Amino acid sequence: LIHRSDKEIAALAALAEVEAGMTVGLGTGSTAAFFVSHLGERVRAGFSIAAVATSLSTENVARRAGIPIIAFEDLATVDLTVDGADEVDDRLFAIKGAGGAMLREKIVAASSRRMIVIADGSKLSAAIGRAPVPVEILPFAREFVLAELRRLDAEPVLRIANDAYYHSDQGNLIADCAFASLPDPVATAAALSAIPGILGHGLFLTEVDTIYSANGGVVTRLDR
Ligand code: DER
């Protein structure tokens, strides 16, 4: 008997959509790690694809799995991106960034013909608003941006790692914003993007085409 977690089951459902010859965007986080691992098995068995990574950590995991990695900067379009999320809802709105990779994840997602979120049932909501919204901040702009976020009632908390500020793959800071509620995610996303010094945020409102979510071993597919 093989027991698979819901994250792994969701990842396998997305893997079924990968075709030979595709350029595949590899997400970041523990759910995406199952996808990368199983994709690596297929590649080692002769399945030919090329992949771009949404973080340095994913790039390392993918290379160790034997997946050919190409540099995203040389591409304009990716065929299929598979990534996790911190929270998703029935509108296919997502909050991403707990893994700190949402700046590259959003670029790769936006460049993809299809973007699939894989998640276990704990990530599903009727409307996003529970998970904090990560924001990537240019260090030069730290206190200015924090003040602007407080004016939006975003309650920003700078991410700490090993008693120092956490830094993204780009060398920027990340603040987690604990909005009391997100009644209008589109307006909130626009307000965040309008603050100079914010280079990215975790509100993904247009990028997700399909969600494969698994709960108790049962996979549900939701399409935009
Ligand atoms: O940081 C990210 O965007 C990750 O995709 C995150 O949202 C999901 O991570 P998990 O699969 O480990 O829950």
TrEMBL record:
Catalytic residues (UniProt): 105 (proton acceptor)
Function: Catalyzes the reversible conversion of ribose-5-phosphate to ribulose 5-phosphate.
SMART domains attached to this UniProt entry: DeoRC (SM01134)
UniProt keyword annotation of Isomerase present: yes
Protein name stated in the entry: Ribose-5-phosphate isomerase A
Quaternary data: Homodimer.
Protein residues bound to substrate: 28-31, 83-86, 96-99, 123
Catalytic activity reported: aldehydo-D-ribose 5-phosphate = D-ribulose 5-phosphate
Organism: Sphingomonas alpina
Pathway named in the protein's UniProt entry: Carbohydrate degradation; pentose phosphate pathway; D-ribose 5-phosphate from D-ribulose 5-phosphate (non-oxidative stage): step 1/1
Keyword Isomerase belongs to the record: yes
Gene name for this UniProt entry: rpiA
UniProt entry keywords in alphabetical sequence: Isomerase
Pfam family, one: Rib_5-P_isom_A
EC number: 5.3.1.6
Gene Ontology biological-process entries: D-ribose metabolic process; pentose-phosphate shunt, non-oxidative branch
Stated family: Belongs to the ribose 5-phosphate isomerase family.
Molecular-function GO term, any one: ribose-5-phosphate isomerase activity
Taxonomic lineage of the native organism: Bacteria, Pseudomonadati, Pseudomonadota, Alphaproteobacteria, Sphingomonadales
Enzyme kind, highest EC tier: isomerase
A GO cellular component annotation in the UniProt record: cytosol
